[in-house]
Amino acid sequence: MKLSPVTTTLTSLLLVASIQPAATLAQNVEDIECHDGDLLSGRYENVLVNGGSCTLDGATVFGAVMVYGGSLTTTGRGAAIYGGVQVKDGGSASLMAADVDGAVTLEEGGNLYVGAGSRVRGISAKDSGDVTIAPSASAGEVLLANSGDVAVGGSVAAVLSTDSGAVTLADATVFPGGVTLVSGGSLEICGSSIGVIDTLLDGSGSVTVLESGDVLAVAEGSCGRSVIDGSVIVQKGTGDVRFAGAALNSDLIVIEQVGDVEVDGSGCDPEDLSCATVSDVKIAKVSGAITLRGVTTDSDTTIVENDGNVVIASSALGSDVAIQYNKMVTVAGSSFALEDVRISNNEGPILIDRNCDMRPTVVENGSVMITNNNPTDATAAGATCVSGFGFSDADVSKNTGGVVIENNSGEGLYCSDNDPAPVEGASGNAVAFSDGQCAGF
């Protein structure tokens, strides 16, 4: 059915400009209204779905498809749409094997499903429902505002979700951009890559989650390992932040989050980009427990002003470390590349056990135990030791809950103003030089 002159005029104002080859091919084709279960398989200028349902079955649309309050479906024979798809007024679209050269926009619409074999230039949803990009489908940027959930199983250029639902990436590729979630639900990354395609890493795949829920990238069950080649920033949300078996190839920053933070690279193979290899780590003002296990860093680690306990285990931290103003602190089975490790102003107790290659400053904490920090015990605990001692210049001062120093090897040990003072005796330490309260250790 041909559109009325009024409808045709309104339609022309809404169309996305088609490319020149399509305009040339579109000569002598008509606009058409599609409703009441119509099945279209020909060639059209523009298609209007004004209520009801419309199915494109191998059709070619040189302009745009506009869905006002109805539903659009393409069959397995697909459709070629040069001008884009516009969905409004509660309408919805399900695209199978469709090639959409323009954008798909949803405004006050329903759900969008981009099925296998479909390619869409971009997706924009406002005041709408859920958006799903199935495996073997691809899209450009996916933009959601005040809408539902977004689930990606195929390939997209980037995801930006504001005031919307959860974001789920399952065996997905996000490239060359990243993922941004603001004032939304949770982010779950399952066997996906962000900022990575094949073996190309360009550092553009950042993940930013603000004022939202859980952030999870966990390799377990049916979920494979995920790779994120860009900074991960999580702030002011409510939910756990957990990366297990994921490759984090840049900074990790978590600030003012209500929940636990866990980064676990245990058992990973760094040669295949499958480990928690991080640059800077900054975790501050977090309400829950903090655990770094099997983590490798090449820059500073800062863990400050958190309300929970801190555990660093079986890790290789390659630059300065600051752990301050927390609760209980455990540092075990790790190596520190002879970098400064400052553990201060924590409530305690503090346990520093089976580590090597440290330059520790342990001051103004509660009770402190420094035990078994020597290459033999550290190596048995999984640490990779370079030097022949547990610590070099160690400063243990102004701790108020008692200090135990046993079975360590080191170059220098200085102790002062601990209350009570460390007790000398059969402590099994092998320290080249000791002074202050630890003289003779």
Describe this structure as you would to a colleague.
With 441 residues, the chain is mainly β. Among the domains are: 117 residues, no CATH class; 133 residues, no CATH class. It contains three helices and 49 strands. A hairpin with a 2-residue loop joins β23 and β24. The longest helix has 10 residues.
Number of helices: 3
- Strand-residue fraction? over 45%
Q: Given the C-alpha coordinates, what overall shape results?
A: elongated
Give the number of DSSP strands: 49
Helix content: under 10%
Low-confidence segments: 1-24
Rg, Å, rounded: 29 Å
For the largest beta-sheet, the strand count, sense and barrel status come to: 18 strands, parallel
Based on the model shown, name its key terms:
441 residues, mainly beta, 49% strand, 3 helices, six-stranded parallel beta barrel, 18-stranded parallel β-sheet, disordered N terminus
